[in-house]
Amino acid sequence: MPKRHRIQFPPADVRELCQDEVYFYLLDGDSKEKIRLHDYERIFDVPGLYEQVVYERLKCQSPTTVVDVLRSSVAQCQQGINELRVLDLGAGNGVVGEELKKQGVSRLVGVDIIPEAQAATERDRPGVYDAFYVMDFCSLNDDDRDELKLWSFDCLISVAALGFGDIPALAFLEAFNMVGKDGFVAFNVKETFLDRSDDSGFSQLVRELIFSEYLDLHHLERYRHRFSIEGNPLYYFALGGKKIADVPHSFMDSVDLSE
Length: 259
Ligand SMILES: C[S@@+](CC[C@H](N)C(=O)[O-])C[C@H]1O[C@@H](n2cnc3c(N)ncnc32)[C@H](O)[C@@H]1O
Known about the structure:
By secondary structure, this protein is of the alpha/beta class. Helices cover 29% and strands 25% of the residues. It has 2 domains: 6-57, no CATH class; 62-252, Vaccinia Virus protein VP39 (Rossmann fold). It has 8 helices and 10 strands. Strands 6-5-4-7-8-10-9 form a 7-stranded mixed beta sheet, with helices on both faces. It has a 3-stranded antiparallel beta sheet with strand order 1-2-3. The radius of gyration is 18 Å and the shape is globular. The protein binds S-adenosylmethionine. S-adenosylmethionine is lined by residues 40, 62-63, 90-92, 95-96, 111-114, 117, 136-138, 159-161, 166-167, 171.
């Protein structure tokens, strides 16, 4: 059992921050450390801190929700989730992997851009992934691609990692194209990403993709991802579907893939 941490959220008058600027304090004896909620390097270094802040205090329910959406999408094709060879993009410290492992997936590979995620996964959830790579999907080289292709993925899952300064559209497309034809895809996005008023690259990509000939949408669910630090519910969509074909890069010529 990791040690319990003393956590303090900032006072109400300084809380009006963007989702990727939000912070909390970690109290330890006389020290008071300010940590941004998106400072994953620091958070994953402290065993149990991510789980205590995100899952206990902010009541994040995305891993279970997106895994359920994946199961529903797979079941619609009379297949079982336990047959899948899954790529978990933005795996963090392995919470989603643990959820998938409970379902008994056939192969499970995690990828994250920071080494602290891999170290935390191996420290806190050893054996959950068959392999865990530290890679930036925006700049894979041919050796990385060859290595990943050996896993013959037929499923991509990405939870709480897309957009918002985390995984940009280009990296998502690279991962999508790594999944074989007739494979499955499940991920979540902030609810505004499906709204035409949001013109960020990621939002455009998601809207184009779900109405495209590259993906058959099987399941779309609006749900409470978690609470904000102010205590307001943050709604996301969880999407699940079947991949029909690779997305050519020309598909997104009009979109800024760096967002
Ligand atoms: C909010 S955490 C989510 C972790 C995990 N999926 C979960 O639901 O608990 C987002 C993760 O995405 C990772 N990430 C951000 N940009 C990335 C990129 N370009 N490629 C791979 N991982 C990335 C971060 O390092 C972080 O671990």
